[in-house]
Known about the structure:
Elements: E1 2-6, H1 11-23, E2 27-32, E3 52-56, H2 62-71, E4 76-79, H3 86-91, H4 93-113, E5 118-124, H5 147-166, E6 170-175, E7 177-179, H6 188-197, E8 202-205, E9 211-216, H7 217-230, E10 236-239, E11 244-246, H8 247-258, E12 265-268, H9 283-287, H10 296-309, H11 311-318, H12 321-336
Parallel strand pairs: 1-2, 1-4, 2-3, 4-5, 5-6, 6-10, 7-9, 8-12
Antiparallel strand pairs: 9-11
Amino acid sequence: MRILVTGGAGFIGSHLVRRLVLESGHEVVNLDALKYSGNLSNLKTIEAHARHTFVHGDIGDQPLIEHLLREHRIEGVINAAAETHVDRSILDPGAFARTDVVGTGVLIEEARRAGLQRFLQVSTDEVYGNVETGMSTETDCLAPRSPYSASKAGGDLLALSYWTTYRFRVMVTRGSNTYGPNQYPEKFVPLFVTNAIDEQPLPLYGDGRQRRDWLAVEDHCSAIEHVFFQGEPGQIYNIGGGNEWENIAVAEQIVRHLGKSRDLIRSVQDRLGHDRRYAVDCSKLRRLGWSPVVPFEEGLCATVQWYQKHEDWWRTIKSGEFRQYYEQQYRQRLQEGVTETRVKG
């Protein structure tokens, strides 16, 4: 199949593109705006592959999208392009609305006009908001609590309206916290791993008791592909790893894997509107024939080892734009702490 994958130079997108091209044999046109987290080095193994075409551009560029769909005779779209980090959405909410809502609108309208066979919107479990007990199901009301999750919820609703209004074959996936190689080091796992390698503090928000369901990127991508080809139009599918851990426990595993002192873990002022817990019910996707295969402890260990072996990848990133963001986000927090400088077990 000829598939347009957007955001294909980012973390999840690059893993998905490699999977579709190298393992499944599809032709992929890979569109990415190459903003701060888009990285062409993520595509080195397929940059010259005959079934892979990279295009530098934005999903909000209507003439470009129209041209790509026609020129490459695209049959389906997987929209993995997004502004994704909650902390950045607090600093610049407008950018998230432009990409996650307006950009999605441009992309799906052009896909509908071109008569494509299917369109998959890659989303997040954060649209459900804080989940104190139980698990979120696909029919739950949305309750986003950050500009990031609100913008993703807006994109989801816009996409799903195309099934109701036009019977355009749209599906939505909502994945839980994803980790693995090539993840931009602003996110929890790569930030803590790379900081620990350099004996730098690990800035843990609040008491560190926030709970997340951790999903290996290879499992996330296999689920996206499965839904794209096997899912029912107009439907939403939750994707979870079945690995619910408190943030502090993940931090402790990271320093243990690296043989570092637990004293590197520092309690810092919590971020605004920080959701305490996410958890998704994935029984609908399991009935469709998918289930995760990577145990969290095994996947986390492999991820830590990847960052140890690929310092050239992340050091280049952390010496650039990232440094200014990190200073803005954590410097004062690390200086002040919350009530003490280190988290006690």
